[in-house]
Amino acid sequence: MVRLILLGPPGAGKGTQAQKLAAELKVPHISTGVILRQAAEKKTVLGKRAKAIMDAGQLVSDDIMLGIIRDRLQAKDCEKGYILDGFPRTIPQAEALDQLLSQKTEPPVVIANLSLDEQELRRRIAGRRSEAARSDDAEETVLSRFQVYQEKTRPLLVYYGGRVRPIDGKGSVPEVFQQLTELLKVAAVRSPEAAS
Ligand code: AMP
User: Fold this and answer.
1) Does residue 69's CB lie within 6 angstroms of at least one atom of ligand 1?
2) How far apart (Å, rounded) are the C-alpha atoms in residues 161 and 179?
3) What are the tens digits of pLDDT across the range 128-139?
């Protein structure tokens, strides 16, 4: 059983690492950004609303996000664990997640924070601009996303405090992946039921 919350600023490599970890550990990669972008592509009511918010570099409301995550975590494939990427992003989301998880007798969640200096973050997002074609990677939007990260998401590091395991996001994709797998191994040893 592996449950990982991957924190970190935009461009730190959360999506890439979460995808690789999920494939390796055979648990779902739950990216709230991907869920919202899929809804936007399908042009559902939620999707259209979310697209405008995402393109402005702002956050979709906690109520909506909580509804999405509650449904998703109840799905059968989450029984073996999951990698959470992009959730929680605000203190109320973290509080609600804590409450959701405390209702079940499950081993503790591992919380990793992928950090990288802002210059490198900007360089990586600029590189992503041509490849992934995410409309919210436009330069003006990235500025808002960084601001929102500082104001709303960074405080999660204080909220989770000593539970947060720092991961240096500077290395290559395999190097960062190695750090994360080591961290999960250590967590599984400390909490034996987490390894099952
Ligand atoms: P991401 O792919 O994680 O960078 O998310 C892309 C965009 O989706 C964000 O900039 C937000 O607009 C929105 N989003 C994703 N996850 C959340 C969340 N947990 N709370 C609010 N908005 C979110």
Assistant:
1) no
2) 20
3) 776 667 788 888
